[in-house]
Amino acid sequence: MKPLRRGRTTLRRRLVLLSIALTATISIVIGLVAVFSLQVFLEERLDNQLTSAVRRSRDFAGRPPSENRPGNQNGPGPNFLNAPGQGEDTLGVEIEADGTVSTAAVLSPAGETVALTTDQKKTVAEVPVDREPHTVDLGGDLGRYRVIALVIQRDGTDLTLVTGLPLSSVQAAVWRLTAAVLAVSIFGLLTVAFVGGLIVRRTLRPLNRLAEVATGVKELPLHEGKTALPTRVPEQDTDPATEVGQVGSALNTLLGHVDNALQARNASEARMRRFVADASHELRTPLASIRGYAELTRRTGQHVPPEVAHSLSRVESEAIRMSGLVEELLLLARLDEGRPTAKDPVDLTDLLVNTVSDAHAAGPTHRWQLNLPNVPVVVTGDEPQLHQVVVNLMANARVHTPPGTVVEAALRLVISEQGTPEALLTITDNGPGIAPDLLPEVFNRFARGDNSRSRTAGSTGLGLSIVSAVVLAHEGQVDVTSQPGRTCFSVRLPAEPPEDLYEPMDEVEEPDAALPPTALPPRDIPVDAVTQPQGIPVIRP
C-alpha cells in the first residue's frame, strides 16, 4: 500500500490521524513513566528487604552449627540461610579468603537448600565487596538477583558473605503493568479513531456544504454565456464568529463579484453583438448602392478614361469584398445571439456534389475528388448555412494550397459513441499543412494563415469561424488535424436514421489518422473531372 502524501490526504483524515498520533504519544509517555516509576519503587523496596536479609545473615553466620535448626545442618547451603525470617528463594554464598566458594545455595519454598552450579558460583564470586546492592544474572531457573557482599570475621579469618533476593517478583509486576498500559492504550486509540472520526465528520459538515456550493458553481455552463449564479452558501454557514463562517461569507462575496462581472461581461458582449449586427445591416444598403453605381458607370456608352475605368473596377471589387465581409459578420452576430436555426431535412450528398462542382469551377488548377456513401445522408438543419460550411471549407483548401493540390471531399454515415447516427464530412488535402502555432486558433475570428499556406486570393479570416459557429448551432462538432502533406477538416452532425445499414466505425477513416502526402495521389483523369463512386455520374462545371 502506497503511503498517502500530505497534500493528497483529506482534512478529516489528517485530523483523525493527528488525534491518534497525539493520543499514542501521550499513552507512550504515561506508560513509560508509570512502568519506570514502579520498577524503581519495587527495586528500592527489594533493596530494603535485601538489607534486612543481609543483617540476619551476618548475625546468624557467626553461630556454631549446633545452634542451627534441625534438619538443615547437613545441607549444601551456608548456615545463615537457616536464620529465622529468611524468605524463599534467598541466595546465600560463603567465599573463603582465598576466593574459593565454600558453600552456595538458594532456599527453596519447601525450606530446603538447592546448590548453585559452577557457573552460578563463578558469577556470584565476581560481585564487588562494597556492601552495595548489585544485580547479577544467574541464568537458568534463578534468573536475575539483587545481591550484597560483605566481609565478616569468623574464627579469626575473613569470610565473604553474599546474600541475594530474586528480582522475579519485581519483573512480574512490571510486566503486568506494561501489559495493562498497552491494553488500555490500544483501547484508547481505537476509541479515539472511532469517536474522533465521528466528531470530526460532524464538525466538518459545514466545510462539506461549502465544497458542494463550489462544486455546483464549477459545473455551471459559464462558457455558454450563463450569467446567473443562483448557488450561495447557506446563512447558517456564514457566521463570522467561526472560521468556517468566515470562509462561507468570503465565498458568498466572491460569488457575488463573479456574478456581477459575468453579467457585465455578457451585457458588453451583447451590446457588441447588437452593434455588429446593426452596423452590418446598415452597411448592406450603401455597399449595394456603391456596387450598383460603379457597375452602372462602367456600363455607360460614354467613353471613360482608362484610369477612371480601372478605379471604378477597383471600387466595385472592394465593394463586393466589403459586402461579403458584412454578410459574414451579420451571420456571426445572428449565430451569437442564439437565434434558432431552421429544422428542415438537408441532403448532404446532393449538397456536397453541387459544392464540389462549384469548387472545380472556381479552382480549375486543383484536383478535386469526391467520395460518397451508397446511402443518402440526411441531416436536420438550415440548408443555406450548411451549404456555406461546405463552401468555406472547400474555399479554404483552394485558397491556402498551391496549384495541383488534391482535395478530397468525403461523406460517411456512422454511429456515434452514444449509439446515434452521425454524418461525418471530411475535407482533406495534401497541401503544405497548417503551422503548428496557428492550428489551435484556426477557428478563431480573423485568424489568418502564414506563409506556409500561400494565399492566392483575398480572405476575411472569418470563413472557418463561421464553419465552427454554424456546426455548433446544429449541435455538431468540427475538428482539424494537419501535418505537412495532409490537412483534414472533419465535421460531425446528427443525422437521420437511413433505411439501410450504417457503415461500421472501423471502416471509416478517422480525421486524426496520420497519412503520408501520397495518401491522395493525383489520378490519371482530366483536370476538370470530379471522381464519383460507381453509379454516380461525373459532374462537370
Automatic annotation (TrEMBL):
Region (Disordered): 55-87, 497-541
MF-aspect GO terms: kinase activity
Compositional bias of kind Acidic residues: 497-512
Annotated catalysed reactions: ATP + protein L-histidine = ADP + protein N-phospho-L-histidine
TM annotation in the entry: 15-42, 173-200
EC number: 2.7.13.3
Enzyme category, top tier: transferase
Entry keywords, A to Z: Kinase, Membrane, Phosphoprotein, Transferase, Transmembrane, Transmembrane helix, Two-component regulatory system
Ranges annotated as biased composition (Low complexity): 70-79
CDD domains in the cross-refs: HisKA
Pfam families hit by this protein: HATPase_c (PF02518), HisKA (PF00512)
Sequence ranges assigned to domain Histidine kinase in this UniProt record: 278-497
Residues covered by the HAMP domain: 201-263
InterPro entries to which the protein is assigned, alphabetical: HAMP_dom, HATPase_C_sf, HATPase_dom, His_kinase_dom, HisK_dim/P_dom, HisK_dim/P_sf, Sig_transdc_His_kin-like_C, TCS_sensor_his_kinase
PROSITE patterns: HAMP (PS50885), HIS_KIN (PS50109)
Subcellular location(s) per record: Cell membrane
Protein name: histidine kinase
